Every structure is written in C-alpha cells, then in structure tokens.
Write a sequence for this structure.
C-alpha cells in the first residue's frame, strides 16, 4: 500500500498504530481531565457541595456511577477506532477537505477556518441533538444519556453507542466540505471534548472564553430535558426559541424544545434564562 510504504510499515500496522494513538489520546484526555475534576470536587469537597455543585443535593448512586463510566469507556474506544480509521483513510489518499500545508490556503484563511469549523461543528451538534429529542430517537437511544439527571465529568459520553456514532459523524461532516488544516481539526476535537467535560461536570463554571455558555446551560438540559440543545453556544437555541424559559414548564414528557405554557400567556413577554 502506498501509505504503508510512505511510513515504512504495512497498511495493517499503520492502521493499528493510528487507532491506538487515537484511542489512548482520547482516554487520557477523558479520564485524565475528567478524573482530575472528579477527584478535586466530588472526592475532596463532597461535604461542601453547596459551594461548588450546580445541583448540590443530587449525587448519583454507586451503581449508576459505575455504569456511566463503563459506557463512556466503551464509547471512547469506539471513538478511537473510528477516528484512527478515518486518519488511515485520509493518509491513504481518501477524500476530505483537510489539508496539511498551511501555505495551500494561506495563514489568514487557516485562522478564519478555526472560527468557521467551530460554528459548523456547533451547528451540526445542535441539529443532531435536536433530532435525538424526537420521541422515537429519544426513547430508543438518547434516553441513555438522560439517565444522568445530575451528570458528572465521566458522563460526557455516557450514551447509547448509536447516539455516539451519530454525534461522531456529525462532528466529522464539516471537514468534507470546509477546507481545514488537519491540525486545526484535531485541535478542535480535543477543545470540544474538554469543554464538553466541563459542561457535564456538574460544577459551577463560568468559562473565561466569552462566547461559551456557563456549565449550568447544559446541566439544565439534563434537569429539564427538552431545551438548551446547543453544545458550547446558546446561539442556535436563542435563534430557534429552544433556550429554557423561566415562565414555562419542562420535563421528560414535554417534547418540542419550547416547554409547555403554565398559564395564560396572552400579551406576556418570554422570559429566557441567562447563561
Ligand atoms: Zn439531550
Ligand atoms: Zn449531556
């Protein structure tokens, strides 16, 4: 194989190497950063939960905690398998809009592409997530992720493997049309994973990057179910009116993303929650 010759190894060995690197890298970020947050707050400051926890009175029972970690580990390995295989496909000359030489599109475009990719991945995640909240998909797949009403850092990818595959594909779709440097894409995947871990941490966090919603934005998604579908940003929820409203009722059975009216709303201005 051409790519095998280029790296001085057989195709199978190259594939195995890429899958191993992607899997180990993913597991190290996930359990390294997630584990550190868990130890720092859930272990060391458990008795002072009111000071740091978004839902200070809610902790997962031990069996659900262990189940969440097992499912997440399987999904991270699945993610490594997919990402490594995708890298092998690209190295072998498979089609994508990724490029390796920054001079090919210029430095200015490469910098702009960071923003474009971020918004494209966010859009992809928002619409996929909204789709997962349709009754059938929610009941059969997305319900797994919503078993964690008070999520911990380990629950970021505690989800049905079918859902994990859907989200993984949705994150990869933009790079088939948007030219992006390969390192920008890899960096973006790590960035999104780290912020996702913070957003599932259950810890009160106000991100230093001003475009990010606070960690309460996604934590509320787990409490109220069908609202706040965005991943890092509240933009798409604001645009579609799916941001949580103080004046509406939400719950597992209230589908549609806009809650249910509590009383007569005639003439009333919607009261959206600030995150
Ligand atoms: Zn959801
Ligand atoms: Zn979640």
């Amino acid at each position: 194989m051409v790519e095998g010759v280029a790296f001085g190894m057989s195709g199978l060995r190259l594939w195995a190497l890429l899958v191993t690197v992607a899997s180990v890298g993913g597991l190290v970020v996930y359990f390294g950063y997630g584990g550190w947050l868990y130890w720092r707050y859930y272990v060391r400051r458990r008795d002072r939960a009111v000071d740091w926890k978004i839902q200070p009175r809610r902790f997962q029972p031990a069996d659900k905690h262990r189940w969440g970690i097992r499912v997440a580990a399987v999904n991270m390995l699945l993610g490594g398998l997919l990402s490594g295989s995708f890298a092998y496909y690209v190295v072998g000359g498979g089609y994508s809009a990724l490029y390796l030489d920054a001079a090919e599109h210029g430095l200015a475009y490469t910098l702009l592409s960071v923003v474009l990719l971020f918004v494209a991945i966010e859009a992809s995640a928002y619409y996929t997530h909204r789709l997962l909240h349709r009754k059938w998909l929610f009941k059969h797949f997305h319900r797994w992720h919503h078993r964690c009403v008070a999520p911990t850092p380990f629950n970021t990818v505690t989800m049905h493997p079918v859902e994990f595959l859907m989200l993984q594909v949705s994150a990869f779709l933009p790079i088939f049309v948007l030219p992006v440097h390969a390192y920008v894409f890899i960096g973006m995947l790590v960035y999104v994973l780290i912020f996702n871990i913070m957003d599932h941490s259950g810890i009160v966090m106000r991100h230093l990057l001003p475009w990010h919603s606070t960690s309460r934005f996604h934590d509320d998604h787990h409490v109220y179910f069908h609202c706040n579908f965005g991943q890092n940003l509240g933009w798409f929820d604001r645009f579609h009116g799916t941001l949580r409203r103080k004046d509406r009722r939400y719950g597992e059975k209230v589908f549609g993303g806009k809650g249910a009216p509590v009383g007569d709303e005639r003439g009333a201005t919607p009261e959206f929650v600030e995150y």
Observations:
- The radius of gyration is 20 Å.
- Residues 2-211 form one domain.
- The chain has a mean pLDDT of 94.
- Residues 11-43 form the longest helix (33 residues).
